[in-house]
Amino acid sequence: MTTAGLTSGQAAELLEKAGPNVLPAEKSISQWRKLWGELTHFFALMLWCAAALAFLADLPQLGVAIIVVVLVNGIFAHIQQERAQHAAARLRGLLPADVMVRRDGRVRKVHASELVVNDAVLLTAGDRIPADVILVTAQACAVDESMLTGESDPVPKTAGDSAWGGTFLVNGDAEATVNATGGGTRLAGISALTSGAVPPPTPLSLELRRIVRVVASLALAIAALFFLVSLLVGIEWRNSFLFAIGVAVALVPEGLLPTVTLSLAMGAQRMASRNALVRNLEAVETLGSTTFICTDKTGTLTQNRMNAVEVFTSSGSVSIVGEGYNPEGAAQGDGQEKAAETALAALAASQGRAELHDGQWRALGDPMEAAIDVLARRLGGAAEIRTAPSRRFAFDPSRRRESAIVGHDLFCKGAPEAVLPLCSDTDGQVAGQVQLMASRGLRVIAVARRRLDGPSEAWESRPPGDIERGMELLGLIGLHDPPRPDVADVIRTARTAGLKLAMITGDHPATAAAIAREIGLMGAPEFILEGSDLPDDEQLLGALLDRDGVVVSRVSPEQKLRVAKALQSRGHVVAMTGDGVNDGPALREADIGVAMGLSGTDVAREAADLVLLDDHFATIVAAIEQGRATYSNIHRFLTYHLTDNVAELTPFVVWALSGGQFPLALGVLQILALDIGTDLLPALALGAEPPGKRVLSRPPERRHLMDRQLMVRVFCVLGPVEALVEMSAFSVVLFGGGWTRGEPPEPGLLMAASGAAFTAVVLGQLANAYACRSATVPPWRLGWGSNKLLAWAVLAELAVLAACLYVPPLAALLGQAPPPMAGLLLAALAVPAVLAADWAYKGFRGRGAR
Ligand code: ADP
Ligand code: MG
Fold it and tell me: Any idea what the Cα angle at residue 749 is, between residues 748 and 750, rounded to 5°?
């Protein structure tokens, strides 16, 4: 029994009344609460304490300055988090969510949010159940309800049972009536209860937290050390305390986490604009370090626009010509009647159909099944098999076949190796024909039938193994699925980018090889593995890693999982595609599980990290490119930020090493001004750097954020150069003003010298921002204006610098004054000095790499 469903008029009316079928937005935490959170996390609390102590020690300016820093940082972090969250929410909205419903007596595809109560929905294995429903018909249905109940075994369901929105139909077919949508569903009730739950931290955020914690403890230890030294050299405790706080504040990287989150979100957004949808921000970073892509064939490398071009039966071979899904066409060859019978039998075991839509013939459902529909029509078969099957055994990649009981017949279609062994009378000629068709790149489908004797009820309860056997082979259908036109280019690009590739397909080895050859995926000597006799891990890895572009055919989901695990055991970062219900484990195990937005199941999409909205292989490569770019951006502003810290810390080191004899070049307030006046905006601009032209011409690297390269660049090259110019500018003014060792400098002189040091650091950081734009080439090769955001940030930085020097009250507050000409000139040297050091270092490293 099926229901007629609603009319579209009724549906529209109900939708108007009940609202869209979406979960009510989580009760959003108020902006103020979130901002409050930013102002009260660990570092902020530390700074609040410092401020309080400053007031207690009767240093009100310092106290106020620290409060300003906490507020600016907090607001800034808050804005970044909000932007990141908005971006993530927008991405979630792009996830495909189509549902088949019966409206106006026809089956149609609508967006899940348009469902209304009493809609008749059609569900197949792999679908996410879009709302709370009551099953009207159910064949071999099992539902994964773990997201509601935590129970991981699928629950069997029969007609009359309820199924809840948000759970997954993992087996069988059903037609169901919606009885609650949106906020009325059980899932909505539960998520209202749990919306406060915090998601567990991800590896990247753990690594970041670790970095922040290490740097912060370092800051505190150094601060304590200076406090002790200054007490020992007999400085008044209040001043030493001030120094200590300065060091701590200078080094604590408060702004790091939100900046990283935001640049991940921006990366995700850029990916989305290229049809790659990440389901969690972390994946952006993992994509950047991907080294191995395991891709399937159909739809990803090929167009998934199938066309049945040949039917082989015992009466001979019929070839068919025709365009797309248009049923007009011509057949040529012997045994057309048998061919038509084969096509109709295959159609009986299919759910996909070709449909005339706005004057255009299109595939409704699986393109291969639509092609079979078209084939039946071209062969003159009355393509109207509308008798619903009484029982179906659905396709899944591990069975590689699908069958249906219609009346007293069982019809079965599937991969020849999955169907022929179940037929009673096949001969060597058939096997030879399969090989022949497959080696021409055709996807071959075997079609079989069995007459089921006796009362049909007897067959309703028998297990599939009892039914799908002793069949009579009707024929073979050969389908052509051309490769995507640009896929050969993309494969070349991927190779240049140092990515290793393998085609992992459920298809016949000969078909897979023909396609792989055509698109240049398989290098010479050719190597084709079969899932059923995969060698042990050692040999498997030897095959996958020593050769370029191996084809693994006839794989089952379990074997995919094995391939992923083996590659990972060698340190590879694996992206693996999958579309079936059983691909979940492999998708989850892979570092990047890739699911398809157009084809494939909701179950696979749920398990994936990346969804390709266009199913296109090129999109994986584009996502990897953007992932690499984002990773470099994080690296960039980390370099930038830490270099600043070196420059800020040096005056304290010199002062301490001189036993307090050499005056402090920068005061605490100046450091705070550097942190919020000059550090924030360029760091943000660096995080928005577009992908460089060369990200795909380099091999992948698996790096930690704080790797040796970064350390060397910060602590041995950029940092020291900046610090050197800073201290020189300071000394030139100081000695030029007549200061001699051992005496406290005259206050006006000290302020002018300090102004020179401050200017040197700001200008050095300005050059540094440009130097950090690339890890390999000097900034002039990128073009000075190619990051507009950075240009604005630098202008802002210069304005802040001018204000800090030439607005007297501000300058006085910071403890500095406009430096004399000599000081300014020396400070200006920071720009060429940093650029030259950066250029020399990059040149040196570049030669080393070559
Ligand atoms: P691919 O890697 O090309 O996407 P699949 O794993 O999807 O391969 O399919 C494997 C084999 O299963 C195909 O070669 C075909 O013989 C068979 N097959 C695929 N889809 C269906 C279907 N809807 N019904 C029956 N058999 C199918
Ligand atoms: Mg497939």
Answer: 95
The one-character DSSP state at 573 is -
Is the distance from CB of 35 to CB of 75 less than 8 angstroms?
yes
Does 525 sit behind a cis peptide bond, omega within 30 degrees of 0 on the bond before it?
Answer: yes
Query: Residue of the nearest CA to atom 10 in ligand 1?
Result: 506
Where exactly does CATH 3.40.50.1000 map onto the chain? 277-302+484-615
The alpha carbon of 513 and the centre of ligand 1 are apart by a number of angstroms equal to 15
Residues 312 and 440: their CA atoms lie apart, in Å, by: 14
Is the CATH number 2.70.150.10 carried by domain 8-23+98-191?
Answer: yes
Distance CA 66, CA 45 (A): 11
CA atoms within 13 A on the CB side of 116: 16
Domain 223-271+624-849 in CATH 3.30.930.10? The answer is no
Give the HSE-up count for residue 94: Cα atoms under 13 Å, Cβ half-sphere: 24
How many other CB atoms are there within 10 angstroms of residue 488's CB atom?
15
Find residue 413's DSSP bridge partners. 402, 447
The answer to whether residue 363 scores a pLDDT higher than 90 is no
What CATH architecture applies to the domain 332-477?
A: 3-Layer(aba) Sandwich (3.40)
Query: Which residue ranges does the chain devote to CATH 1.20.1110.10?
Result: 223-271+624-849
Question: What is the pLDDT averaged over residues 471-477?
Answer: 95
Residue 793's H or E segment, with its range, is helix 788-806
Cα 445 to ligand 1 centre (Å): 8
User: What count of other Cβ atoms lies within 10 Å of the Cβ of residue 219?
Assistant: 21
CATH number of 277-302+484-615: 3.40.50.1000
* Ligand 1 neighbourhood includes 298 CB (under 6 angstroms): yes
Give the number of other CB atoms < 10 A from CB of residue 323.
10
Beta bridge partners of residue 106, listed in sequence order: 103
Q: Is 193 exposed, middle or buried (0-12, 13-18, 19+ CB in 10 A)?
A: exposed
Cite the residue boundaries of each domain of the chain with CATH code 2.70.150.10: 8-23+98-191
Nearest to 599 by CA among 583, 622, 585, 586: 583
DSSP H or E segment with residue 353:
strand 353-357
- Active centre residues (catalytic): 296
Site to substitute for ligand 1 among 445, 484, 558, most atoms within 8 A of C-beta: 445
pTM of the model: 0.86
Q: Percent of the chain scored above 90 by pLDDT?
A: 44
Query: Cα(487)–Cα(490) distance, rounded to whole angstroms?
Result: 5
* 586 close to ligand 1 (CB < 6 Angstrom): no
Identity of the residue numbered 604? A
pLDDT tens per residue, range 327-358: 888 899 988 999 999 999 999 998 888 888 88
* Cα 590 off chain centre by: 13
Q: Is 415 in the pocket of ligand 1 (CB under 6 A)?
A: yes
Place of tokens 């206050």: 747
- Residue 620 φ/ψ region, left for φ over 0, alpha for ψ in the -120 to 50 degree band, beta for the rest: alpha
- In angstroms, what is the span from residue 582 Cα to ligand 2's centroid? 12
- Kindly state the tokens that stand for 260: 């990283």
Answer yes or no: is the C-beta of 399 below 6 A from any ligand 1 atom: no
Q: Residue 581 has which token pair?
A: 């219900």
Q: What is the pLDDT of residue 831?
A: 95
Instruction: Identify the pLDDT of residue 381.
Output: 66
